[in-house]
Design a protein that fits this description.
proline biosynthesis, single chain, eight-stranded mixed β-sheet, Carbamate kinase, kinase, Aldehyde Dehydrogenase, Chain A, domain 1, G5K_ProBA, six-stranded parallel β-sheet, alpha/beta, 38% helix, ATP binding, globular, 24 strands
Amino acid sequence: IRCWSNIPFITMPLSRAHGKSFAHRSELKHAKRIVVKLGSAVVTRGDECGLALGRLASIVEQVSMLQNQGREMMIVTSGAVAFGKQRLRHEILLSQSVRQALHSGQNQLKDMAIPVLEARACAAAGQSGLMALYEAMFTQYSICAAQILVTNLDFHDEQKRRNLNGTLHELLRMNIVPIINTNDAVVPPPEPNSDLQGVNVISVKDNDSLAARLAVEMKTDLLIVLSDVEGLFDSPPGSDDAKLIDIFYPGDQQSVTFGTKSRVGMGGMEAKVKAALWALQGGTSVVIANGTHPKISGHVITDIVEGKKVGTFFSEVKPAGPTVEQQGEMARAGGRTLAALQPEQRAEIIYRLADLLIDQREEILLANKKDLEEAENKGRLALPLLKRLSLSTSKLNSLAIGLRQIAASSQDSVGRVIRRTRIAKDLNLEQVTVPIGVLLVIFESRPDCLPQVSALAIASGNGLLLKGGKEAAHSNQILHHLTQEALSVHGVKDTVQLVNTREEVEDLCRLDKLIDLIIPRGSSQLVRNIQKAAKGIPVMGHSEGICHVYVDTDASVEKVTRIIRDSKCEYPAACNALETLLIHRDLLRTPLFDQIIDMLRVEQVKIHAGPKFASYLTFSPSEVKSLRTEYGDLECCIEVVDSVQEAVEHIHKYGSSHTDVIITENEKTAEFFLQHVDSACVFWNASTRFSDGYRFGLGAEVGISTSRIHARGPVGIEGLLTTKWLLRGDNHVVSDFSEHGSMKYLHESLPLPQRNTN
């Protein structure tokens, strides 16, 4: 039973009742009272003499920002000994006689022996300077800081403990940041193995145990322990098999091997874990993270509070299913087994999935109905997104047809030889297709995307992680279940994983050791966010679908309105829908132009005038705010150009390299357009809506890529493959091919094996 102070105090209302730690990282954003523990390795320089001023300033900035958000911040800091050591070393050097310094020579002066400095003396010399530094830094953010020095006795003596508790609460009430440190000038030497004594008592041996004791004593929501390692590893950091533990649960310490302690400070990782578990038992959530890494130290504290996957999070609640890291490993192993199957076996899995979509359509539509009802009741989805969310019998039939196309075309996708070369006699080289590895596909409001992408991953032998939007949770769940049922036909059920945990998309994009390619399917904002968040993982896709249709002077009257109507009105929310209509200047005030405008009005398309088009009109529609706009609705921009050359230049300047169309009967003009427009898809007298994997005969697509490396345009099976080189020799060594060697390079192209075109 914990006894709290009886001294009355006033605090700002907490966002939750204390007593139980947060179960998930995403809940950390609700933390009101936070203790930040700064280890010696974080505060001190690499030479262990003096403070890391830049790092310390960054930490103060983050703490100040959180304090100004209305949170109650406390800092448990090391650094007094290091700061004092710097001052005392300087004093000792100055106290050397001038004669000795002059006769020693510069090089010898640098190597002048400095006596071993006693830690308590260093602490006494450094405490005032350390606090003065904190005060100066916090003053820059209009925040006041106060120093509190404690020893173990302050927690064991009831009156002192109450006094400390009351002082801290009063400082927090006045919006002051308490900076707490052990009084190393008088503290006795630490006793070995005294980190934990019983259940409700922790010995203040170092700043780790001090921070834990303080966090529980003050009913803190979150304790952030910053050190010089990324967090807790399953084996000593730096060893070959060491893996960072994302979430640590009580009882897991038996499976962890602790390494040596940090270069400075009194506590090692074992002490941190013991202190963290003690604080967790007392109702305080804990995160151990790296506060020294130059790429993350500038935002590590705020990232933790925002719930991002940083360091090791201590939780008492184990998730029901596997972690996303475990799912990634299962997808990797399953993908390798899948790639080793015969092509007919992979095709059989896809055929089975197509059959299940038809056989289980009632269950699928029932789950989809739940998603639609929840979305409509909450009113959180726009009409275009509701249309994407909706499934129907016809959609499922089309899906099944597309999946069967994929199965039929996948017979020789993996392991296909695309190049054969005879390097020398009995030394033959082959380049063959292989899966990319593990794909992460993130999609919004489109449950039909799940079986499409799964089929393409199966056909190409890739492992797959799927992250769908919560608005389609019921639909995605049953579709994933059916996918795994189909995969079970050949014992590769785990190849396709649905990420149902509270993983943030940004955190998934950091799993560069588990994921080989990210494919976003959703809004342009989603794609941009993923491209920004991806750390070391390539992203395939497009951030915008700004598609153009250019109407040339030689355009057919019969074709123009049909193609424009289909491009804009057939599915305005699609990424391949028309967004900007380019009209040749000579067509203004002609019957053809009037027909275009009349058709758009009948279809209730809102028109925005480009600057040049607006200059020709006395009363024009609203002038467009930007020519780089993807409307995703029954809206479009009309702009005037003087020639096909100007149309091409406009597309290059304002387009997104997605899909662009010319309508003309002049073959020469059309070929100029086709050859000069630098987009993934360029069409002549055809709707932009043909830019689709199913319509291209790919069966389906994982998305449309506008990048210039690897795949471009609608991405089917071929876009999910890479290659490897196989060299078959017979005791060949490079030295045989030297100037005086016995062998010569031939580099002869060999015929490829005949493809299965059935």
